Amino acid sequence: MIISAVYTGIIILINIRQQKYLTLKALLSLKYPLHPSRGTNSFMKYRYIIRIAAGIILIMATVFIHNAIAIYQFSQQNQTRVADCAIVAGAGVSGKTPSPVFQARLDHAIWLYQQHIVRALVLTGGYGAGATVSDAAIARQYVLEKGIPAKAIFIEERSTVTRENIRYAKQILRQQQWRTALLVSDPLHMLRLKTIAQDNGIDSRSSPTRSTRYKSWWAQTRFLLRETFYYSGYRLLRYMPVQNNSITP
User: Fold this and answer.
1) Residues in Cβ contact with 58 at an 8 Å cutoff, skipping those fewer than 6 apart
2) What are the C-alpha distances in Å from 135 to residues 151, 191, 249?
3) Angstrom distance (rounded) from CA 85 to CA 180
4) How much is the pTM?
């Protein structure tokens, strides 16, 4: 459904670009400056700026569409295999309970443990605004109640964005001398999560949730557009410090 929406968007974008191209072509074919009083040089400069702006917009649109397709294609992959641990990306809480999206991720991680695919869970998530308990601590209580032994649960409570989820989880992996990890999140989140883990030197595989709370066409499309924006931002600013990068949660 999502890939259909993406391709539909491409067709619409192409049509829009064609219309804009015709308009731009007509504009650039004018023989006289729009503002004769400013002279031919001013008009030529204006036309040059339009060409540059059109080129930049075209490049940005192409990159955005390419990334959206890549995110969707990767969301269809399931690389689940035996690993030392599962790193669960945080997704917020509601009061003292993990959000529905977070619960789906935790349930998948619990299943991985119960199937002996991983031997430990690394739960991520810091403190929300005004919170006295971290998201990871609430997640820990949730998986404890589901029968996961305390010795198999590890939490990091400092992260607020995906980059920090991976950054601080890596410290736990190093302390425990674990070499491999499965990444657990929603399917459309997996490419960004996997890319960040790879950039942090973690030997990881994607293990997307088997179901998602983003079920409607509109919800999935919004999630895809959001992920495309953040993934594109991360690829552009990946080597900047986390605290200075506000567009790559």
Assistant:
1) 17
2) 19, 23, 16
3) 7
4) 0.77
Residue 59: partners with Cβ closer than 8 Å, 6 or more residues away = none
The burial of 244, by beta-carbon neighbours within 10 Å (0-12 exposed, 13-18 middle, 19 or more buried), is given as: exposed
Q: Please, what is the Cα angle at 159 between 158 and 162, to 5 degrees?
A: 165
Amino acid, single-letter form, for residue 184 = V
CA distance 104 to 20: 44
pLDDT in tens, 165-191: 999 999 999 999 999 999 999 999 999
CA atoms within 13 A on the CB side of 168: 21
Euclidean distance between CA atoms 73 and 3, whole angstroms: 8
Residue 204, beta-bridge partner list? 181
Dig out the tokens for 157 from the structure. Answer: 């409570």
Residue whose tokens read 């991360």: 234
Q: Which of 119, 80, 88 is nearest to 106 (CA)?
A: 88
Helix (H, G, I), strand (E, B) or coil at 181: strand
pLDDT at residue number 37:
52
**For residues 15 and 234, what is the distance between their CA atoms, to the nearest angstrom?**
29
Measured CA to CA, the distance from residue 92 to residue 125 in angstroms comes to: 7
User: Hunting for tokens 């293990």 — which residue is that?
Assistant: 207
- Please count the other Cβ atoms lying within 10 Å of the Cβ belonging to residue 178: 20
Give which of 209, 84, 104, 101 is closest to 152, Cα–Cα.
84
Query: CA 116 to CA 79: how far, in whole Å?
Result: 16
